[in-house]
Amino acid sequence: MGIPVAEIPEAAVAHVMGLLRQVNMVIVGAEAVTSNGGIISRIGTFQLAQLASKVKIPFYVAAETHKFARKFPWDQRDLGFEQHVLDFRTDAASKQPEDAVDYTPPALISNLITENGVHLPIYVFEQLLDIYGSLA
């Protein structure tokens, strides 16, 4: 399609997005899209969304509608499971969990890209109402 794409190492994101201003948009995937239009995704997504918002770069989420979930967390502490991200030890057994996730609220998401088109985060709530009739 001729669209230039660059993968940026995690350690260089703030430099490239904020200082060099060489990024036009951010597109991420999601493990789940919550009923309020937020996302649960790989840890670090929330801070990436915050940075994109700060430097005024659109932040898009590409996710299929089968990932739409009826619940949503209030914040990072309300995901519903322990992740053990902080593991202070002095021995070699300490390591970061590879499958840790975080929550990105809908206020930081420009649009959702789904198989049904590009939509505002409120689209999730509307779709779930159409499917279930209520979210109770």
From TrEMBL:
GO terms for molecular function: guanyl-nucleotide exchange factor activity; translation initiation factor activity. The keyword Protein biosynthesis applies. Signal peptide: none annotated. One of its GO terms (cellular component) is eukaryotic translation initiation factor 2B complex. It comes from the Eukaryota. Keywords: Initiation factor, Protein biosynthesis. Gene3D superfamilies: Translation initiation factor eif-2b, domain 2. Belongs to the eIF-2B alpha/beta/delta subunits family. This is Translation initiation factor eIF-2B subunit alpha. It comes from Claviceps pusilla. The lineage of its organism: Eukaryota, Fungi, Dikarya, Ascomycota, Pezizomycotina.
